[in-house]
Amino acid sequence: TLASWDKIQKEIGxxxxxxxxxxxxxxxxxxxxREFPHLVELQKKYxxxxxxxxxxxxxxxxxxxxxxxxxxxxxxxxxxxxxAEFQNFISTDSSDDVYAAxxxxxxxxxxxxxxxxxxxxxxxxxxSYGDEGFTYHDHIEPLVAELLGDAS
Length: 152
Known about the structure:
Helix content is 40%, strand content 21%. It is an alpha/beta fold.
């Protein structure tokens, strides 16, 4: 679905009471593509426990000659290959505008919201996770499990 960051934020808000994992990624980002299958695994493992995963492609960088819809085929192909059967968006706001909104500098970015609807943690490759960056296995899944434990 093509959507503005504001519309995506409203969609995230509809899942209050659940843990929500929002993966901001791009088809040109190798670390994003390497970790994305683990988002799919997380959804399959925890959906029945109240976790919602949402993917947001930030391929659109604001160039009018390449509007957001021009990325649809490549994004849909990648999502299909990954078996990403959860909500996925292509941002209609430029990647730089979304980075500014989340106060980050570039993909990969994962936002984890607690059952209270508040941002529990923003994961970004800022150097604090070593050369490999953050991973679903080592960083995101443990937080999700902790938030689920806090909710019960």
